[in-house]
Amino acid sequence: MRSIFILLISLAGVMLSAQAGYTIVVHGGAGNGLKPENVSPQRQEAYTQGVEKALQRGAAVLDSGADALTAVVEVLSVLENDSVFNAGRGAVLTYEGEVSLDASLMNGQNLEAGAVSGVQRVKNPIQAAYAVLQHSPHVLLSGSGADEFARLQQLELVSPSYFLTQKSQRALKRYKARFGLETSELNTNAKMGTVGCAILDKNGNLAAGTSTGGMTGKRYGRIGDSPIIGAGTYANNATCAISCTGHGEFFMRYSVAYDVHARMAYKKQSGSEAAQAIVHEILKPAGGNGGLIGLTQSGQIIMEFNTSGMIRGYLKEGQTPVTAIFKD
Ligand code: ASP
What are phi and psi of 311, to 5 degrees? Predict the structure, then answer.
């Protein structure tokens, strides 16, 4: 009798772990410009294809045994190489007409984190963030020092012209025409294309990462939430993995990514309750546009935004990708 009981228990365990496949969630930025009438069908298709390609890359590496952290880096590298998004190659330009790239990454298993801000040479800032996590005693490296660190880690560096796309140059021109030449205003209504990813792997480990060019016309070395652990990115196996996008100043002031974790840990809210409260009841009244994606330890998908759209998608193991851009 006792051995039948033990057999049943272990069978249930095997079935449970077989059911618990991985899940990948990504965003490609949120904004009030993301309305069907503003985004051409070709552009919508480019966003959708970009997100699907990144999700499929994540699935391929997870299928071959990668853990959540490594897969987040792979997914975000695909998005950074796609000029339709505001990260890596397609990053928006500073007031001076250069890129200044930010990225961060966190491992929910052990709370290790790595980030870079203001890099201008490394092709994939998320890989530089990963190198900081793995090979330095630090969490955040900035500017030319971070580029030099990436070079010493044998990461691919590119010339400044790699990042100068027609799209980003035109956006800077429009920005200067609208806000004037002597401004440090941020155009918070522009379409944003920051990228982020959260993954729950088969072993129950969570990881999250975010990568961005920031906001068009940013000046004086402005840095947003994306490279700040706790603001733009957070992961903790006890609760959730979160990546944010939107007007970074607000996400920093409200420690948004960490707050999702904190509400789950201390207030016992579910992931979606926590995300809804922060995005709609805290950020929105304060004037903070944006949203976030994430996953909870139990595999619940979080996708919440207070703008007219957020480029987003998810993929559950063995299933096809699901994507969306606008409010449903
Ligand atoms: N959060 C980013 C920043 O403030 C921008 C974005 O997500 O669109 O730099």
Answer: -70, 125
Q: What is the pLDDT of residue 16?
A: 45
Q: Determine whether the shortest distance from the Cβ of 233 to ligand 1 is under 6 A.
A: no
**Amino acid letter at 201?**
D
Point out the catalytic residue in the list 23, 94, 188, 194.
Answer: 194
Active site (annotated) includes residue 323? no
Q: Where are the domains of the chain?
A: 21-326
Residue 195 · residue 210 · CB < 8 Å: yes
Topology (CATH level 3) of domain 21-326: Glutamine Phosphoribosylpyrophosphate, subunit 1, domain 1 (3.60.20)
- pLDDT band at 18; cut points 50, 70, 90: very low
Note if the pTM is more than 0.70.
yes
Q: Is the minimum distance from the CB of 248 to ligand 1 under 6 angstroms?
A: yes
308 lines ligand 1 (CB under 6 A): no
First CA to last CA across the chain, in angstroms? 53
More confident of the two residues 328 and 89: 89
